[in-house]
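anyone seen this seq b4? input:
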Amino acid sequence: MTKRNALLLGSIMGSILLTLITVAFMLEMSGTIVSAKNWTNDQSTSISQKSTKAIIKSNLLAKYRKIAANYPGHPVSIAVYSKEYGMTVKYNNSRHTAYKTASIIKTAFLAKVLHDHQAKRTKLTKTQRAEAAGAMIHSNNEDATALYAVAGGRTGMNKAFSLLRMAHTADRGYGWAFTRTTAFDQLKLLNQIFYSTCYLNRASKSYMQGLMNHVAKDQNWAFRRCQITFN
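predicted toks r here
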């Protein structure tokens, strides 16, 4: 891997890590702000909810700007969704920048394959299940390439991105690892895997979540080698 590719991979993985850390920060914030449930008047409840969301959003954006300021000249894309508040917070200091996905695109491959099987009312073959495990758990490139082919390659994936309204994600045909995306677009995909049932049914979602919850330790490098704190 070249130094340039390593930096690009680090950038997108850094965005994912920041998103996960943000979730923890949101949980912390929800415990320190007066809950809307403590209000008895409907109007007061509505005001409290709006105030809580505004405070959380303001605090998160301030944290994101502080992080970006430590890396002048580098584009930063962060997005997080809170199910509790029904709110998405996103920060992008370079609106026209999309990032190479590297290995995170493997998640989209499997989602597309599962979606297609749902439409045909069929199930993954034994071979496809092995490839899914290899790609998702061990980040095996050969297995991912096999899933990419089943998903319809460049044409199939771009159709999926369009269907999911991932407007800034595109496979340009230079190799699947060079697909470009943004944190906000990746959040749309994750919402389909963990919350919505529009693209994936419950069985498909459960299957994907199971694989994502058992990523091999040797592929968990971002969490072992990176430490980002909100000071």
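Residues 3-32 form the longest helix (30 residues). DSSP finds nine helices and four strands in the chain. kinda curious what u guys think
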